[in-house]
Write a structure and sequence with these properties.
single chain, 279 residues, alpha/beta, 4-stranded mixed β-sheet, 11 helices, binds 4-(N,N-dimethylamino)cinnamoyl-COA
Length: 279
């Protein structure tokens, strides 16, 4: 039986700042409030091994969501977003390790879903299995025209994991989800657009520019209002209508305790552009 390797790379402190050093992640923290996290395991088309999953967890857990207002997740290179969980690692696992591996991904992806800021997946190629599950943990997805989406797990003798069965069915409906999962077939970006798995498709060379454009529009809005709206949309999925409406009422009310609500409405009445502080 193979043990899951201990995390070989995490952030460290240099006395003042936390320094992130990862093997399989690259990150760019931009001045405009946008951070880009890139999964980078080029030899395996950015497949997710347990170290990548731990690094994603570490990255997301330590992201400064005051400074970063939108997170973009993408894959390194032109061919692949993430080609799934790492089959060369999974082949050696037995039940207990399979369960641990599953938890690693499920916990990391849930942290992405629950981040108090929007997360956009820029899907730049193969988006298979665990890759599709990573993309689905993001708030929404833009794809390049060469992207391919699929849940090929049953062809490997396993079920989709990392909450794939749950999120895919919620996102595109049970019929399409079951067809994708039972057949394991990959679908093209235009088909993913048609069934609502992605919001938009762009030429590969245009993709990141378009994602950043959308992220900048989000950054211009009130961060707390976005945070409360995200919480309502995420949580109301699992609620009965009365609870969902009450949560919305509460979060709407909370906005009136913010300076940004006064700033936004005053700017509108003065025919000015608002400037939001996030408080
Ligand atoms: N894992 C490991 N290595 C991979 C990989 C993967 N998922 N995908 C690609 N690679 C490696 C290839 O083995 C190859 O390595 P070398 O032979 O060069 O050493 C290299 O990347 C380039 O790949 P190809 O030579 O195959 O490139 P092609 O362009 O010909 O094909 C492809 C690209 C993406 C169509 C093909 O590589 C492919 O079919 N890859 C596997 C895709 C796949 O089946 N992905 C799903 C993996 S299963 C769960 C939790 C999680 C999951 C399941 C359950 N529980 C909690 C229950 C998740 C499961 C998965 O994601």
């Amino acid at each position: 039986m193979q043990e899951i390797a201990p995390l070989p790379s995490v952030g460290r402190n240099d006395g003042k700042n936390r320094i992130m050093e990862y093997i399989f992640l690259k990150s760019e923290v931009r001045e405009d409030g946008i951070t880009i996290m890139t999964v980078s395991a080029p030899k395996s088309l950015n497949a997710l091994n347990s170290t990548v999953l731990r690094e994603i967890d570490d990255f997301v857990s330590n992201l400064d969501t005051q400074k970063t207002r939108v997170l973009i997740i993408t894959g390194d290179g032109e061919k692949s977003f993430v080609a799934g969980a790492d089959i060369s690692e999974m082949v050696h696992l037995y039940e207990k390790e399979g369960y641990e591996f599953s938890k690693l991904g499920a916990i990391a992806f849930r942290k992405i879903e629950l981040l108090p800021i929007p997360v956009i997946a820029a899907v730049n190629g193969f988006c298979l299995g665990g890759g599709c599950e990573l993309a689905m943990a993001c708030d929404f997805r833009y794809a390049s025209s060469n992207a391919k989406f699929g849940q090929p797990e049953v062809g490997l003798g396993i079920t989709p994991g990392f909450s794939g069965t749950y999120r895919l069915a919620k996102l595109i409906g049970q019929g399409y989800a079951k067809e994708m999962i039972y057949t394991g077939k990959a679908i093209r970006a235009d088909e993913a657009l048609r069934i609502g798995l992605v919001n938009a498709v762009y030429a590969p060379e245009e993709l990141m520019e378009r994602v950043i454009e959308t992220a900048q529009k989000i950054v211009a809005n009130a961060p707390l209002a976005i945070r409360y709206a995200k919480e309502c949309i995420n949580e109301s999925y699992d609620m009965v209508a009365a609870d969902a409406i009450e949560l919305e009422n509460r979060n709407f009310g909370k906005c009136f305790a913010t300076e940004d609500q006064k700033a936004g409405m005053t700017a509108f009445l003065n025919k000015e552009k608002p400037s939001f502080k996030g408080c």
